[in-house]
Records
---
Amino acid sequence: MLFILFHLGNDCYALDAARVAEVLPLVQVKKIPRAPAGVAGVFTYRGSPVPVLDLSEIALGRPSHARLSTRLLLVYYPDETGAKRLLGLIAEKATETLRREPGDFVASGVRSDGASYLGPVAHNARGLIQWVEVDKLLPAAVREALFRQVMEEVAR
Amino acid sequence: MNAETSTPFAKTSLNDCWNKIGVRGDGLCPELERHVHCRNCPVYSAAAAKLLDSDLPVGHLAEWTGHFSGEQKTEEAGTHSVVIFRIGAEWFGLPTAVFNEVATLRAVHSLPHRRDGIVLGLANVRGALLVCVSLGEMLGLEKTDLPKKDKAQAHHRRLLVISREGSRLVFPVDEVHGIHRCQPSELKEVPTTVAKATATYTKSMLAWRDKTVGCLDDQLLFYTLNRSLS
């Protein structure tokens, strides 16, 4: 199984590469007023609007640094009807991939109710890597509101 | 890396050991024994990651935002794929589909009573004896002595193995560029001024780099060659 690695602060996290449609360089994101915390805004991808989350904002409460190594991961995300939608994730130091079996990841032993997206951990030479589950990044209510909000924002 | 290309990252101090003791330097790095090439070495990838940690260049955001907002350009349907090769001074192309392989030059055993003309003899390709023909002779290309520069490039010569409808042939060429994809719109009509014999076999002309490539009619080519064999 292939993972895309990125950083939140100094620590390394992994995302299932099968969920990633494309890795883009950082682009200009239009802010959405009064959007839920962690929502960086929306950008136009191939003619249609795609909402963007900032992973550093969600996890650490500060926006990602604008660097060349900060990339926009375009992931598939199910909306309320179950249809696949695209969602952008701004991730710092998204420059590497890692091949690991899902069985290599074990429960971290620490549960954080505020961050249910944090999954099991695996370790490599440089330390622990934690699996981030895309589906759990947003509470369902926020997710639905977000996709709806994006559509309204564009229709306006 | 010279001074000009390194300017965007000049602010980042970087130990470019691959230029000093690595494969682009004197090759004395003890790590080379383990990694064989610098690109396999963690120091090299760490340096690359360090370069990527630099701030965004001016205009970067705007450029990429514009790039991804537009419709994706997909390749026009019906592209042609040709293998481009050189005989003498002229460049030719044949549809990639007729090619079996590009083989190294090898001895061609001449056939008794066939010492002139198109058939050069037999060549052994993977154990099969294939008829080796001279495309230059068939196209009526003038035999030019290789310029001095080309003599040094004799190692560019290859044997091309082509097949169509069960008949396999080989022919020597002076150089093979490789596979080139082009749009149907890029193919131009053959001007009437082209030498007659070449014009018969040339279906269309293709501008490639600063040269013009004559795309040959594979059907006619095989027909003529097969006839000259019987």
Note: The radius of gyration of chain A is 15 Å.
---
Amino acid sequence: MDIALSAEDLAFRDEVRNFLDTEFDAEMQAHLKSRGSTGMVEWQQKLYAKGWVAPNWPAEHGGTGWTATQKYIWESERSLRGIPDVVPFGLVMVANVIMAFGTDEQKEYFLPRILKSEDWWCQGYSEPGSGSDLASLKTKAERDGDDYIINGAKIWTTYAQHADWIFCLVRTDNSGKKQEGITFILVDMKSEGIKVNPIIGIDNEHNLNEVEFNNVRVPAKNVVGEVGKGWTVAKALLAHERTGIAGVADIKRNMRLIKEAAASEVNGGQRLIDDPGFQQRMADIEVELMALEFTELRTLATMAAGGFPGPESSLLKIKGTELQQATQELRMEIAAYYQGVLPTDMDPEVLGHEFGSDARRAFMYGRAATIYGGSNEVQKNIISKYVLGLE
Amino acid sequence: MNFDYTEEQQMVRDSIARFVQDDYDWDTRRAIVDSDEGMSRQNWQTFAELGWLSIPFCEADGGFGGNIVDMSVVMEEMGKGLVVEPFFPTVVLFGGVVARAGDEAQRAEILDSVIGGETLGAFAYVERQSRFAINDCKTTATANGDGFTLNGEKVVVFNGENADKLVVLARTSGGQFDEDGLSLFLVDANAEGVSKVCYPMMDAQRVANITFDNVQLGAGALLGTEGAALPVVNDVVSEALIALASEAVGIMGTLNAKTLEYTKTREQFGVAIGSFQALQHRMVDTMMAYEQAKSLLFKALCEYKIDPASAEATIHALKVLIDRNGKLIYGEAIQMHGGMGITDELDIGHYAKRLMMINATLGDGTFHRSKFIESTYAAA
């Protein structure tokens, strides 16, 4: 039972601080703010150059080989500076699948390109008719010589408008149970027959899309794992996804922003941070957050010791997303009337407020967190079956 | 970074678990609770022989020299078995004060016999009006020659019925609420002028209201520096809060396990009730509540080990979460056991009642949330 940082850990922390303070300079911050995905690619390439873009990859494939403590230090220092995490679809999701189930050829081609952020990935799981009941998916892949012909549609596809590749679950067989006959396949977004239709979100932004497949021809060598075993592949990915999803470091940052804002916001001459009702709401979130941080550390420590995350990891997604939303809600409320400000280029001086629109966008976009990656209700079904053993 | 217990800690854990399993089954425990003293002297001797009573005391005082994690392991296991023998009042509170405040002679005299199982102790710090404010103290000790004269009343003294020795918090100067002017005194439970009214609590603790009527104390009765008791008491309280949280975590895990098992075997409408999604999602909630409480306990343990002062906010937060999650867990345990859950016969209600008393001890969730806010947002 020990969290004391060793001399090596402290030296590592200095190195991280030094790197982030030097490389995440004003220019990079401006890039990220104004250029969206292009800015993100530039940042990820800087991380790649340093060898730090893939903390969750094994060292043999170009990962960092960090200990649990080092990962924790990295996450804390990153979020402290408001630096967004890497875009997960390539570096976290599909990479882990390729490493675990891919052929040597797939590994050699895709993994270096993912590391260098040369390819932008998106995820083709949900369909208009298949949300929480993912296994009911209907997008069909039919064998034609050395290729598959794909027909159907995927939906809620984040960043499909930027993507070079999409990893999809498709149906290759209809004869058995619905979980059988699903195949995991990689599709080049430049293929003929793919159409991306934007969906404007509740946050008034374009992040989501519908992706149509009309007779899209995909080489059979793009199947990852066995044909018909895509469900197993997807489930293994979920376990990886779950561990990073709590977003503790980012919630901590939200909490700090809330405290700063509550210290400057005044109601009838009293600072919001001195209001007992508001203090209690902050405390209720913070107490859960302090616990969640250690739940995440417990998971990291287990994984660093070579173990598989225990039951404590399954609550990371549920609790993490609940707390993300709780902090987003609180920050919205601090903005009072200004929480309703739409995206604007207006000078805060003219508008009269700094963060209203940011808070609104974070809150609105944040609603997705309890829905994606398996809705929290589906998570509870999974936990009750696989952790509690309830049928 | 690691959240493992040492081999030694595992051994202590196993030995308490074995005791609970072999010698502390539910009927045995019930007979102990119903006995005259509400505890088993024989068990207490066993605790002494197995070294459990020595764990928090330093080696110079004849103890095992254990740290906060060792203490936590003991308390968690005691929680799982719902052990009623007065480990918390005697070792954690009474022993904790003597170990911190006592001089060499006092420690030698008292701790030796605590470790040996000969002395049962109690810490008398609650007054009728004081609620959770330990500084709110009307009991007085006035200088009298070389010694002191003690007057006043302490209530709900844990183990007050069976304690041989008491540590009493009394005011030697200042007003009722002053933080300065408090002192600690070692008092024989059967000294002249000490009288008590004993009563059992819902968690089977035997407590007492103890009155001190011109009790004459020698100079050697004063523990620590006159007028400077509060910081010492606060240190003991911090450690005691971690101990109680550990016990609570043991109870929460047990309640969840028993409830889960019950829903897998209890059939209604022709199926196990655990097959109902309405119950499944709630059992996921109680599982998460338990894991979160355990995580925050780990945080408190790790911080306390590095520097007790650095754990202050975490300890307040821990008591808040134990209160909140404890209520969820015992509430659901009772509800899911249905009619059986509200019987005295089943152990579920007894685990629930101990959790409730833990919540009410040394400040409840509301109290500690205010303390957390004070320590966290005051400087913002």
Note: Residues 125 and 169 of chain B are 5 Å apart (CA to CA).
